[in-house]
Amino acid sequence: VDLYGDHIEIDYRGEEVNVENFIRVLTGRHPEGTPPSKRLRTSAKSNVLIYMTGHGGNEFLKFQDAEEISSRDLADSFAQMEEKQR
User: Fold this and answer.
1) Between these two residues, 79 and 54, which has the higher pLDDT value?
2) Which of these, 39, 54, 73, 77, is most buried using a 10 Å CB contact count?
């Protein structure tokens, strides 16, 4: 089932949706050669809304039913964003 159609660009899908890539997008620590479409181009004046739903528990969220991100790692990523004025 194609939920998006031809007019929607999806930057990350399937196995690319993982904890490592999520933290890289938030903190701006991408490998060399990462295309602009896979980067979060924000500044100190940007407002970023992160909406996550699905599996998780007390102080963690799951990615792909295989990986977890802790609330501490998430808070650290947000702190890095603020520090870097992202």
Assistant:
1) 79
2) 77
- CB-facing half-sphere around the CA of 49: CA atoms within 13 A: 2
CB neighbour class for 26 (10 Å; exposed up to 12, middle 13-18, buried from 19): buried
Helix (H, G, I), strand (E, B) or coil at 12: coil
**pLDDT higher than 80, residue 28:** yes
pLDDT bucket at 65, cuts 50 / 70 / 90: confident
